[in-house]
Amino acid sequence: MTTPPSEAQRLRDLARLRRVRDRMDREYAKPLDVEALARGVHMSAGHLSREFRRAYGESPYGYLMTRRIERAMALLRRGDLSVTEVCFAVGCQSLGTFSTRFAELVGMPPSAYRQQAARATAGMPSCVVKQVTRPVRNREARPSGRG
Predict the structure, then answer these.
(1) Residues 135, 106: contact at Cβ < 8 Å?
(2) pLDDT the model gives residue 147
(3) Cβ contacts of 98 within 8 Å, gap of 6 or more
(4) Dist CA 38 CA 34 (whole Å)
């Protein structure tokens, strides 16, 4: 049986988790894996994964993929890159994985999003476009009938 961490240790862990999250936000296009992220904050990969999920409600990999998809959405709205170019520009190594994850988060494949977003956001300020096009995970969606 283990004893619960002290408040000071919990706060140190939260600060390290914020550094990991900030690194993913900055370096989303680089090859990042949980082991490398954990080494960077002197944690084991398992401990980082458990604590990250506890603090942010999703795995480090899930968080990173969401950041990559958000950036991909912006690049696709610009319209000057192919889906394959966008995939690699945001740090994904597999077009299939990228397309599958994109469709899960956004609700449509990247090629369809590119066509639809260009029409739907024409004339909107970029700050508004960013807010209204942010992907919503299923667990974040409001149940119907509630407001």
Answers:
(1) yes
(2) 43
(3) 68, 72, 87, 90, 92, 110
(4) 6
